[in-house]
């Protein structure tokens, strides 16, 4: 019930269309029933009674009823489709926004394809549940109630028999609903796992071929598919068992009406027209009851999909913060910051200050915590202890949007979209072509782009697979510089470049970022020698800091790095 109420919160956004769909579907059913009821008048009051003068008016009424039914039979589903689209859009926007607020730890523990499954399957199921199934359920209920009323007037005994069949339907629904929900959830889980395997199989094609593991990958796929297929078979057996018990109720009720109604006709207690109509109404009633019953069965499985969406939307999320950033950023300070991945400490009381307008470098051994600093600045995680403050305000109190507008982070492995180079550089922003070309020249990538068949309009492969690692990194740098953020964080952003190209890129960055705050995380010390301040990070702590010359005099650890790299 809670899940249905949750879906209704979104369905209310299209309540006008939803109400129209309900009315149209109800009137459609009533018009069809009216056409059947008018047939009784045609048989008893016109044909058998000899009142031939009423033939054409009665026929016209029957034709009008069928015409209304035909029009609504077409227009009603169209309104339902619009309602489903509106609800799916509302749910999709909420789910997408929610994904961007999921804790990074949660995202890292989940597979990409599982989230894709939520959009391709669960979202559509939720939309149909709230915007399509409801009008159709109302249609079936209205039909059933109308037929019950007509049957009560025609023959109370036949009505009692129909109510008996209805009770059996209800008992079957109560018995099978939880079983169907469990089976549907299990099928969805196996299907999601299969999609994950497919996504990984396609993404890892080069590695699989390079290591000649095609048979191994095929075996993994077969295992996932076998698990999914087995669960589908089990669900199918459950559905067949349900149908085996429910279908006899349909023809059983019809046989009863034929038997009992036929006896009444032979005893002259029931007219021929009413008998014919009663048979048709019995079929309609059982179809409606079957529809309600099937809705109850499908509801169980669809609620499982809705529960998965709801779990994401209402689950844990990163802290939002409410405070804006007033004026330019003065400094960024790490005060006794501690952080751990799972139970492994990474930062141990880190003390670090970034003054606005300076170029700050973080150097040190792998695993020392440098990239964790970038992740904290990106707000992928929050410190376990201590304070990360921006202009004296703890970062967790600042609105995410306000912080995101001020900072850009370029990672070692940038993500590129399977679109044109221009789109990847601009990401929907507007920049003069001259400015784009200027920055590309500065990042030593313009000549590479110009040599491509379509230049800046060349479409690159998924994740930029058609480009080298160094080319992808330079495109990411162009993208960041074009945004011109107040704070730029480079996390091993030039590691794939050769030394000569890296020096040129760093010189251009220094020129383009003059007077702006830049934080560089690097292994190569030659690229950060001119930094205003260099922090040596080791064991999760800033063990030394100063300029290059100061550290050469004061830090044996730094001198060792310089000596080993020949910087």
UniProtKB/TrEMBL annotation:
Its main location: membrane. It is a multi-pass membrane protein. InterPro entries: AAA+_ATPase, ABC1_TM_dom, ABC1_TM_sf, ABC_transporter-like_ATP-bd, ABC_transporter-like_CS, P-loop_NTPase, Type_1_exporter. GO terms for molecular function: ABC-type oligopeptide transporter activity; ATP binding; ATP hydrolysis activity. PROSITE patterns: ABC_TM1F, ABC_TRANSPORTER_1, ABC_TRANSPORTER_2. One of its GO terms (cellular component) is plasma membrane. The chain crosses the membrane at residues 58-80, 144-172. It is found in: Cell membrane. Residues 19-301 form the ABC transmembrane type-1 domain. Keywords: ATP-binding, Cell membrane, Membrane, Nucleotide-binding, Transmembrane, Transmembrane helix, Transport. Residues 332-564 form the ABC transporter domain. This is ABC transporter ATP-binding protein. It comes from Paenibacillus sabuli.
